[in-house]
Amino acid sequence: MAHADLDPIIAAFQSKDYKTAARLIKPLLQRSPPDPGVLLYAAKLQAVANHGEAAERYYRQVLQATTNPKLAMQARQGLEQLEQQIQDQRRQAIAAATADPDHSKPGFLILEAIAPDQRQAAAQHFARIFKLDPYTARFQMPNRGWRLYRMGAIGELQVYGQELRDAGIPAFWQPLDAVRQLHVFRVQYFQDLSNQSTVICQNEHGQTGALSFAWSEVTQRVKGLLPIFEQVVDLNSRRQVRRKDATQDYAQVYDLHIPGRNSIVRFCDCTYQFQSGVMFEEDAAMGGRSLRLSWNRLSQFLDHTLDAVPLWSDFTPFAESAINQLDLVMGLPHYLDLLRKAESTWDPAFHLYSSLVLLYNLSRSP
Fold first, then answer.
1. Is 349 exposed, middle or buried (0-12, 13-18, 19+ CB in 10 A)?
2. Is 0.90 topped by the overall pTM?
3. Distances (CA, A) of 289 to 253, 267, 281, 295
4. ∠ CA(10), CA(13), CA(14), 5° rounding?
5. How confident is the model at residue 246 (pLDDT cuts 50, 70, 90)?
6. Model confidence pLDDT, tens digit, residues 164-181
7. Phi, psi dihedral angles at 362 (to 5 degrees)
8. How far apart are CA 215 and CA 43, in angstroms?
9. What is the Cα–Cα distance from 33 to 92, expressed in whole angstroms?
């Protein structure tokens, strides 16, 4: 393209007459292939209009289309300026969001699964937001279930979460306080299954009492397997004895959510008292069964009774993203009474997962 074709556009930019510049650029962009110089000024025009994604797209087209070092340098400078603007805007947004003391309290940023056909495009946005290379970004986005991606001030996480949503990447955030405020009832046994269900249970304060609820109040179910670790003796390649923790068994947990009461009703195979209260038909006939068989019978009863209620069972991939982070969280309860020789972050990870499911669905209720 002759330099003269760009002169009116350059002049319009110098006089900040962007309306004229847009009118002059539009027909030139329709030529195939468009001139790299026109692409450069199209990028600048989008940057002035605060259309960052469109500006970035044009700058990258310049880099692909030109061998002119001057044009390439201007395109790279434009990309750097765009990135600096994004960072400045983010810092300002975070500062404003965390100015309120309530928004400086701790919280969680969770990534939701993204469809395979959307991962490549999403990875570009994810990489830009978190300053990663696209390859790394692609593997940090879950393809199944949820991933606990970051913890920090809830106001800051909201800024990042909104950026992700704006880029088409599903994400949500919740404050720790919201998790702490849920009511949790640890079931010891069913007392009655006649007109409505009544369980004997402990509340979050350790007080024992009866809780009655209708099955229609239950809107979600959550299942999880929690590994039970035991120290075992092993021999290394040099025939030296070493001790290590290994998974010897799993505790099974089954949560019912009653959002109308902001409550979780929790069943666990390790703490349910199968010889008390309602005896299921097969258990009564056999005078009690093994723990595993008894739990399977109880679980099948809940599955059958609540077969139309959505089931969330992708706890394990979530836990794998959470267990190394939850050591940093002070005051995260778990309300699981498992006989462990040492504390395990798998327990608060399950309670967090179940709580997030309840809060997630509450936030989407009409």
1. buried
2. no
3. 19, 18, 11, 9
4. 85
5. low
6. 999 899 999 999 999 999
7. -60, -40
8. 59
9. 39
